[in-house]
Amino acid sequence: MTKRFRQRLARAIIIDRASPGSVSIVGRVACGRTKENYRFAGRFVAGKAVLDIGGGTGIGHDLLLAGGASSILSLDRHVASTAPGGDARVRFVRGDFLTCPLADGQFDVVICLGTLFYLDDIDAALAKMHRLLKPAGTLIVNCINQRLVRRYFAMPLEEIDGKFSTAYDEPGLRAFLKNHFEAEPDLYVQQPVPVSRSLAGLLGFWLAPLTWPLRRHPVVPKPPGTEGMFVYAVVNKNG
Ligand SMILES: C[S@@+](CC[C@H](N)C(=O)[O-])C[C@H]1O[C@@H](n2cnc3c(N)ncnc32)[C@H](O)[C@@H]1O
User: Fold this and answer.
1) Which stretches does DSSP call E strand in 65-147?
2) Using a 6 Å cutoff on CB, does residue 233 contact ligand 1?
3) Which residues pair with 110 in a beta bridge?
4) Which of 58, 65, 71, 226 might form a disulfide with 192, Cβ 3.0–4.6 angstroms?
5) In the predicted structure, residue 210 carries a pLDDT above the cut 80
């Protein structure tokens, strides 16, 4: 398979089309993934002021509100609208996270789901997320698993499309967050695939993406013998 073909295939699969009402297979998987992202984040937001970086069209904000979020500031470079349903607790702002002026120490929870690998300067972004959090605040972040991207497409995420900055595998994400937060993150995965070298493991690995349209995509502690296609971390700022 040529590199160009692999790039096109990867773009078709990876670049999300999680808009409400998507009818394509990739679109429906993306929406399912997004819903589960927010269902997961909803566990950490009761009574909290939340910043959602890359909040997109607001798919899943209902799940944060159901989780008890007291307010949501949804910041997105491309999308700004009024809150779906006009909920006064949700505010949408259009802007680039790295340059958007926001006062430090104002959020209990910062969410960055499906978005880290689009940010131009990931180090500066993490430093800003840390600054925006109140003491003991919580960051919830995920990224595409770079190790699996390399195995499926024989190239790193940043070679698939110029939109992507970089991605991490599980140890890489852990080390990156420890460096910025000086705290140990809790890690989770979404869309786990088998990683054993047995024939069954190899078959499971290559067939897994074909079954994704048929399944839900909950965020879970990593099942033994698997790697998550998406790696999640929850880390607290020292109080
Ligand atoms: C794949 S969507 C993720 C949507 C949702 N958070 C989720 O979990 O599925 C990535 C979003 O990040 C936004 N985005 C990308 N770069 C950004 C930046 N520098 N600042 C703010 N938003 C950005 C895009 O416009 C897009 O809506």
Assistant:
1) 71-76, 90-94, 107-112, 133-144
2) no
3) 51, 139
4) 226
5) yes
